[in-house]
Amino acid sequence: MGFKEIKGQERAVAQLKAALTSGRISHAYLFYGPEGIGKAKTARIFARALTCENPLEGEPCEVCSNCRKANSGNHPDIREVSPDGTSLKISQIRNLQSEVYLKCYEGRFKVIIVHDAQLLTIEAANSLLKVLEEPPERTIFILLAQDVQNLPDTIRSRCLHIQFSPLDQGVISEILAEQGVAAKIPLSLGQGSVGKTLKLMERIDYQQLLLNISHLIGDLKRAGYREIFAWAESLEKDRELLKVTLELIANMYRDKLVRCTTGKEELLWGTDEFVEKEDNPQICLAILEEMNKVPLYLKHNVNLRLVLEMLLIKLKNIEREERRIDSIG
Predict the structure, then answer these.
(1) Is the dihedral of CA 150, 109, 162, 1 positive or negative?
(2) Taking a C-beta distance cutoff of 8 angstroms, is the pair 65, 53 a contact?
(3) Strands 139-145 and 110-114
(4) What are phi and psi of 107, to 5 degrees?
(5) Among 2-6, 43-47, 128-132, 264-268, which is the least confidently predicted range?
């Protein structure tokens, strides 16, 4: 099916098809965007189109020898490189250097797909840069990265950037339905990523997680600091689950705010039933303001336990102070 397989990335696909039909192919591309939104799949289709014997309007024919070999993962002119452990190492890039200057075996181009390029070590990035500065004839590099800011400027400046955007929930729902997968969690938790949505569905019991969070919110109101520190210790153990938990806490207070200010049930996101009803919008607003600061901290190399302890203490103090003021009033 070619690029028709890619959903929700119309702009990226249009850019690539325009390059294929015009023949103006860059020697290096940087596909960037969150994980699980179609970058790798698009790169493989682009590689098929580049090596295809009979491309039509920017699409691979899918029936020629080159397309069949590419689909089976056995094309000699298409090479994929993935991190070795937690990084892309210089030895991997040096192995590529010994291949990229060879002539194409069968296709029109030799295509190198580098997964998770943001994990290049400094030495590996410098080694790759040498190749990009003097690109071999008819060799195309496709770098896949989640965050271009984690790549050296020298690498970024030598690539044509193709942005991949988070997917709409409707697109994610369609993709899951095609795979025969029923959504067991709110699709908003996947943050626009099919891959992340599937991982979360495998890992979490959504109803139990909501119940756990409701207990946490109850402890913010009534428990002592010992319980708060215990919650921080528990949350710190799983960074991926932590992000989901923090998002659900924010969703719960958002639902509480909507309920107490509008009373419109149709505007709720479905988490309010797990927590006590709220009649003080100031508490919700103050807590949401604190919750919105956390993602910035998580992006940096901070002491995670300390961030969580301070966050929960602040939330507890907000609950206590606002209710004290209400009782005085």
Answers:
(1) negative
(2) yes
(3) parallel
(4) -85, 175
(5) 264-268
